[in-house]
Sequence to fold (190 residues):
Amino acid sequence: MDTWVHLSISHQQGSGVKWPPQPRLIGVDDLFAPPDHEWQRVSIRLRYLRRILILSGCGFLALAAAIALLIFTGLWWLVVLILIVVGGVAGWGWFWAARNQANWGYVEDTDELMVTCGVAFKRLVAIPYGRMQFVDVSAGPLDRLFGIATVTLHTASTETAADIPGLPADEATRLRNRLTELGEAHGAGL
Fold:
């Protein structure tokens, strides 16, 4: 506050304006770095599962479109065009699955759990252990086939709920038990 008073006084007296020092600019990626910890990354099996889903979906779509177009129109060049587009989508999905899996992470800090995700649009959620209401573990049939599960942390606010997909089953169990213990220790309603 004294700086602003000094600014207005020095400006009124006609002397040079004394500006406060510029804050240090940090890189945007520094905003998503955990303090004093390394991110725990999710299993690479999540990447493989998503690639299989993307490729099988694209393959089914390409096959169905090709058969329908050949039967009803006979335009083989349109079939080739659709196969090229679907191949491009499959290639993008292959790349996306790797980047997406590599950017999921979590850190168990002393007072909160931090979860980060996103490639183009990064997100960091910090959930205090005392705010957690319950911890949910889920795994669909394909998740179980690949030995992975999703841990979901629920709070009273829907904005701070967080998912951690692609955890190995034993790590998901350990994390669920640990978060439940920490939530009870910090006074949460788990």
Remarks:
- Residues 45-72 form the longest helix (28 residues).
- The chain has five helices and seven strands.
